[in-house]
Specification:
Elements: H1 2-11, H2 51-68, H3 75-99, H4 104-126, H5 129-155, H6 159-184
Helix pairs in contact: 2-4, 3-4
Length: 185
């Protein structure tokens, strides 16, 4: 397992910095001086080799690997991309199997992509991603609401014109949703 950690550690060295183990010695009551295992806050002597600690570390490393190339993206965007890539590779694999051209390298690429999508989805579900996404979208809606109110205040509409604004906004939003549905179909 040490070689696996070292290899993964090299790939994400800038995303997951090394740190000292956070546990304390039972005998001396001083903080452990060992390095924590990759993606963890404890060393192997203080529980870093346990299956649950290694599973959690794998989730953190997977997320760091995914964020290396695009650190400004939201976690759900990374997850959606990973799932999309896995789906595209699965479709390609089906075509290659039917054509009789599916190779061992293709299988490795497919398994790797599916594993990455699985690890990302597991870590995102465990971290409450859906709730975070909902809060993010609600915050964006509040910002837009304040923006529109400020614009309308600056325009100087009459009370009759102000009364028409909610209906206009509703029609525009519904029209955009219909247009997006037509584009998607």
């Amino acid at each position: 397992m040490a070689r696996f950690d070292k290899t993964r550690r090299q790939a994400v060295k800038d995303q997951i910095p090394t740190q000292q183990c956070t546990s304390k010695s039972k005998r001396s009551k001083l903080r452990c001086r060992r390095h924590a295992m990759v993606g963890q806050d404890v060393c192997m002597m203080h529980g870093g080799k346990s299956p649950q600690a290694q599973a959690k570390a794998a989730e953190r490393i997977s997320l760091a690997e995914a964020l290396i190339s695009t650190p400004r993206r939201q976690p759900w965007e990374v997850l959606e991309d990973a799932a999309h890539i896995a789906d595209v590779l699965m479709q390609d694999a089906r075509q290659d199997i039917t054509a009789g051209t599916f190779t061992a390298a293709d299988l490795d690429k497919l398994v790797s992509s599916l594993d990455r999508a699985h690890r990302l989805s597991t870590s995102n579900v465990a971290s409450g991603l859906a709730e975070r996404r909902q809060r993010f979208q609600e915050g964006q809606a509040q910002i837009m609401h304040r923006f529109v109110l400020k614009v309308l205040e600056g325009v100087g509409l009459t009370p009759e014109q102000k009364a028409l604004v909610p209906g206009v906004i509703k029609r525009v939003v519904e029209g955009e949703l219909v247009q997006q549905a037509e584009i998607a179909a």
